[in-house]
Amino acid sequence: MNIIRKELTENHWNKIKSSFPDRSGKRGRPAKSNRLMVNAILWILRTGAPWRDLPSYYGSWKSVYTRFSRWSKLGLWDKIFSQISRNHDHEYNMIDSTRLLHNYTSLLFE
After folding, report:
1. Are 33 and 59 in contact (CB under 8 A)?
2. Which residues, at least 6 apart from 21, have a Cβ–Cβ distance to it below 8 Å?
3. Rounded CA gap, 108 and 54, in Å?
4. Which of 39, 46, 65, 105 is the most exposed place for a label (fewest CB within 10 A)?
5. For the chain, which ranges sit under pLDDT 70?
6. What is the pLDDT of residues 16-47, one digit of tens each?
7. Which of 14, 34, 12, 9 is closest to 24 using CA atoms?
8. Cα–Cα distance for residue pair 100/61, rounded to 1 Å
């Protein structure tokens, strides 16, 4: 997979990949990779675009949204943010609470 500007590097992905559920042993068609799904979700968060405007190379916007929603219900994002925060260098600390999600997302791109 070619790394597109602002997508997860190998180093970034290696920090969080163990947090995602394993799909081995599941029936049905093979799922898209968790890394691709995270990059698609980060694209939505960065751009603020509606889900339907997700570029087609990430796959179906419905699939990406479903995975985002499922992971949100599992508390996966809180787990990842906590994991990243433990290793945080405080470069992106801000007082404005409206920027919190942006700050956590930007931690992935240190």
Report:
1. no
2. 74, 76
3. 20
4. 46
5. 1-5, 24-26, 87-110
6. 888 888 776 667 777 789 999 999 999 999 89
7. 34
8. 25
